[in-house]
Write a structure and sequence with these properties.
Distance between the termini: 25 Å
Structural class: mainly alpha
Number of domains: 1
Helix content: over 70%
Number of strands: 0
Number of helices: 8
Shape: elongated
Low-confidence stretches: 116-120
Order of helices and strands: HHHHHHHH
């Protein structure tokens, strides 16, 4: 089943979806980086190496998320059900937004559940938390592909022999 899903992702429709998902995820990550202080502040505080790592992670995680969205969409078309591993993309993005994202948003969210000033202690402008989100994304990829390998297509059995011909 995985070979069929992989071949489906090469169709024009899925390439367009990939591009739309990829650009959307890159924009989200760049906005979150800018709201978290921006690249000039990161360069001043930590140097170019952290900015380069952040940009690489943004592009790689966006591509991985877009690819997983395509795999999941193709799997849904074939099987008629969504894979359980496809939630990992959303979970990783949510995790990244809560721990690495917009400082004011994170402070407001954690303050509502009783944790105040949590963002002040995030090392390297939250980069280790982006690595955790990356690991979750990789885990979700392996989970999704193993689920697709075990998946079955939705086939409707004919009611009688005349329908089978």
């Amino acid at each position: 089943m995985l070979d069929t899903v992989l071949s489906m992702t090469k169709q024009k429709k899925f390439r367009i979806f990939f591009l739309v998902y990829f650009v959307s995820f890159v924009v989200i990550y760049l906005v979150l980086d800018s709201l978290n202080g921006g690249y000039p502040k990161l360069i001043a505080d930590f140097g170019w190496w952290l900015v380069a790592l952040n940009l690489f992670m943004n592009v790689f995680m966006s591509a991985m998320s877009a690819y997983m969205m395509n795999l999941s969409s193709a799997y849904v078309e074939l099987s008629g059900k969504e894979g359980k591993g496809s939630f990992a993309t959303s979970f990783a993005v949510l995790f990244g937004m809560l721990t690495y994202g917009c400082t004011t948003c994170v402070i407001a969210f954690f303050a509502t559940i009783g944790i105040a000033f949590s963002v002040l202690v995030l090392p390297l402008a939250g980069f280790p938390y982006k690595i955790i989100a990356f690991i979750l994304l990789i885990g979700g990829y392996f989970w999704l592909t193993s689920e697709i390998k075990k998946g079955k297509c939705k086939i409707i059995k004919p009611q009688n022999e005349k329908d089978a011909i």
